[in-house]
Design brief:
The chain is α/β, with parallel strands linked by helices and 241 residues long. 40% of the residues lie in helices and 14% in strands. The strands form three sheets. The chain has a five-stranded mixed β-sheet with strand order 2-1-3-4-5, with helices on both faces. The protein has a two-stranded antiparallel ribbon with strand order 6-7. It has a two-stranded antiparallel sheet with strand order 8-9.
């Protein structure tokens, strides 16, 4: 019995912000296709990574290399957008080389000459959909930034309100203490040791490595004696609600 490989891909949360088809479900579909068409499954490759960005997908590369070396006559994938979102270029070279690609959800098999154009078209559509979504996400995030929304996790000492803007949290007093002490010339390590001995326990690297960056960095700056470190001015208190 001839063998084929299966390629499965999902993201923890897809770019469409919906849960992707699970690995288990994809594999069940692939094995069912193989059995129906008289094949056994040799290997199952899995990537829990985006197919749109330049992220390296180790199992995808292994699956393609096996196909190019003709270790198997075909590679099964649940859908074109699970295979790639980078457009026609991701499939044309393989098709031209005679590789057989099977996309179960669209019922496409490159062994059928009539499916070649559809595979290329669907690959372009997958890319176009991702490009459009990317522009929308970028525009949305830029708009949120202009409105003062903090997009990541709130830094130590701060918290996000219902609108997503930063405000002082219950540990803000420890942030002010650190800034004052370092600005007064106390070494960063000495400040960390003092903090770790009291209720404001704080690991050295967790905070001291970030106080030079946003959102702690605000004008006017204070240059402390400890290594010439630039510190956020204490006027930040007036910048937040």
């Amino acid at each position: 019995m001839e063998e084929i490989d299966l390629y499965l891909r999902r993201s923890q949360v897809t770019r469409e912000r919906t849960k992707a088809l699970t690995f288990k479900t994809q594999e069940e579909r692939g094995r069912a296709w193989a059995e129906e068409h008289g094949y056994s499954v040799r290997k199952v490759y899995r990537d829990n990574l985006s197919a749109w960005t330049d992220t390296r997908r180790p199992d995808f590369e292994k699956a393609l290399n096996a196909l190019k070396r003709k270790e198997v006559p075909a590679l099964w994938c649940y859908a074109v957008d699970r295979f790639s979102r980078k457009g026609a270029g991701a499939v044309i070279g393989l098709l031209d080389a005679g590789a057989r690609l099977i996309f179960d959800d669209e019922r496409l098999d490159s062994a059928d000459p009539r499916d070649r154009e559809r595979i290329i078209t669907d690959a372009e559509r997958a890319k176009a959909a991702s490009d459009l979504l990317s522009h929308r996400v970028t525009d949305t995030k830029n708009g949120q930034r202009r409105r003062g929304v903090w997009l990541g996790a709130a830094p130590y000492g701060l918290e996000k309100d219902d609108s997503g803007k930063l405000r002082h949290g219950q540990n803000w007093k420890y942030v002010l203490r650190v800034l004052r002490e370092v600005a007064d010339g106390i070494s960063a390590r000495a400040v960390a040791r003092g903090m770790n001995g009291g209720p404001g326990r704080l690991a050295y690297r967790r905070f001291m490595g970030s106080i030079d960056g946003s959102p702690y960095r605000r004008q006017p700056r204070v240059r402390g004696a400890a290594g010439g470190r630039h510190l956020a001015g204490l006027h930040m208190a007036s910048r937040l609600p």
